Amino acid sequence: MQTLDPTPSDPPVLVDETVDLIPPKSPRRIGWARRRRALSVFWKTYRRSRMGMVGLVMMILFILLAVFGPLFVPARNVSVAFAPGKPFQPPSLQWPLGTDNFGRSVLSLIVVGSRISLIVGFAATVVTMVLGAGIGIASGFYGGKTDTLLNALTNWFLVIPWIALAIVMASILGPTLLNIILIIGITSWAGTARLVRAQALTVKERPYVERARALGGGDLHTITHHILPNVMPVIFANTVLTVALSILAETTLSLLGLGDPNSISWGGIINEAFQAGALSAGYWWWIIPPGVMIVLVVLSFTMCGYALDEIINPRLRAR
Amino acid sequence: MSVLSVRDLVVEYGTTGGGVPAVRGVDLEVDRGEVLGLAGESGCGKSTIAGAILRLLPAKTKVTGQIELDGNDILELTPGKLRAVRWTAGSIVFQGAMHAMNPVQRIGDQIMEPIIVHGQSGEREARVRAGTLLEQVGLPTRRLNDYPHELSGGQKQRIMIAMALACSPSLIVADEPTTALDVMVQAQVLQLLRTLQHDLGLALLFITHDLSVLVEVADRLAIMYAGRIVEQGEAEAVFHSPAHPYTKALAAAFPAIGDMRFRGRPSGLGGDPPDPQQIPSGCPFHPRCAEVTPVCSSVTPELWTAGPARLAACVHASGAPALEGVSR
């Protein structure tokens, strides 16, 4: 039988290249080798996107800042009781971004606040994605009564103004870090669920899902092997964008005074500045820098999100 | 012993406007090592039968009768048992290979999928098996690492065949496997199917609307019209000397090049297949039939003997009971 392969001159390669690269000892070893190789291919593609690279560099800088930055800030720089400077000092060599109403260094506050802002952003996104993807896929895949029920729930969460719901939940549950994360997650999964459901609806009608059923796969197999990988681009692009939105949500809640009063976050800084009348008194160094940080973080995640979307969808990449 | 035996299969699709009978009493028998061709116009119920064999039809569909696949009574199986039988007893080569593959999975993983789902072997052995299958369908093993969009239409169809073979089923249902392919590739795929079927001793149920394809591949032919089998017999004989007027019309639609009878006037069949909710009385084919008789609208023909090893559901068949005004 003749082959239809367009490049018959290529030297024949073994079944799996990893087999001759590393002599495999266990199936798990093969799995890891394959994952490593897939990752290197992914990285090569990602590097071609300039927007993605700029976003990634910014994101890494922010993550480094959040992880290591606070270690270099002397505790008294952000302490209300032992603040080192005089209140409301404009930027100077000693206080590069000036001081707040207690005489704390605004730069130090921003560095310390980055940690909370990013933690809340990531953690709330995990909650959002698990809820949104789970409910969206269940709704789209099972259809019928399940769909009607979950759809009603999704609509309810979409229609109710999230800020009102968040305020109510924050005042009932109390303003702790964990509660803030849960509140943001619970109030923002509906959009993701709607998006994932739509995608799941189209994917489940594709013939390869019928094939999966025909070859004896159960619902769980079909969902994990066929539905989920095919709605993944939607989920992924959404995830990175949701991190940005979650950071914004945390900022909003803190701005409204619903944040954890014991921790410093960027939204919290702006909230304190606002309450101290920084806006009318012209203490711009107290408000603008945390605002710029929020904008930059959101921008970096958004840029990565677009670049990822282009790569994860193999058909988009082939173009 | 027959691998697939279908008895009095009736399939009714549930719609808001009431039930739509797509298959109305079909008997089929496919033996080990045999190719049965199932032909008919669009909408005559061919693909419905394919779906019924592995119980893949929508949940609202009413299926009655009996389907026995490799000793399993398909319609009576519990969901778990049914899943175990799917692909191991009978597999399907789907219509439209380009859409029957998951675009974000490498084809190697997709060929391995049934092997892993049924726990027949671990991932390494399954991968080796997938490589062997790929070679069997005439593709190099390195293609395992390709994504579906990197393959041509013919290659994808070969992959579909490799997938169907993965769990060594006794029966393969090929549902219009060559529809979207050009004639050259179609011939290659047909030859491949035939070779594999012969070498592995498979039973093959080959579904298509293209009679000329079936004559090349099938041992026996069954012609369907409006949810029923109207003629059945040895492939060459059915094609070259059809007994049922519908088969005659189908066969005449393929002109023999060089044959004077076809010159200048390719013949077709007028009219449309009947609405399944309004099947004509008597013989469902009589409004379009060239050899219609007065009794055709009242007598419902059964599959009567129409020659050696030949059955035809027509009052003109030699085994039909004597009826007024009917010539044989």
Explain this structure.
The complex is a heterodimer of chains A (319) and B (328). Chain A is an all-alpha fold and 319 residues long. Chain A has a domain of 206 residues: MetI-like (MetI-like fold). Chain A is 72% helix and 0% strand. Chain A has 13 helices and no strands. Chain B is an alpha/beta fold and 328 residues long. Chain B has nine helices and twelve strands. In chain B, a hairpin with a 5-residue loop joins strand 11 and strand 12. In chain B, the strands form two sheets. In chain B, strands 6-7-8-3-9-10-12-11 form an eight-stranded mixed β-sheet, sandwiched between helices. Chain B has a four-stranded antiparallel β-sheet with strand order 2-1-4-5, covered by helices on one side. The chains are: A mainly alpha (319), B alpha/beta (328). The interface between A and B is large, with 39 and 54 residues.
Work out the helix count of chain B: 9
Largest beta-sheet characterization of chain A: none
Find the CATH topology of the domain at 114-319 in chain A. Answer: MetI-like fold
Rg over alpha carbons of chain B: 21 Å
CATH superfamily of the largest domain in chain B: P-loop containing nucleotide triphosphate hydrolases
Q: For this entry, what is the oligomeric state of its chains? A: heterodimer
Number of strands of chain A: 0
- Intertermini distance of chain A: 32 Å
Quick check: average pLDDT of chain B? 87
- Level of helix content of chain A? over 70%
Per CATH, what is the topology of the largest domain in chain B? Rossmann fold
The helix/strand class of chain B is alpha/beta
* Terminus-to-terminus distance of chain B: 35 Å
**C-alpha Rg of chain A, in Å?**
25 Å
Mean pLDDT metric of chain A = 82
Q: How can the largest sheet of chain B be summarized?
A: 8 strands, mixed
Task: Please bin the fraction of helical residues of chain B.
Answer: 25-40%
Shape label of chain A: globular
Q: How many H/I helical runs of chain A?
A: 13
- Approximately how much beta-strand content do the residues of chain A carry? under 5%
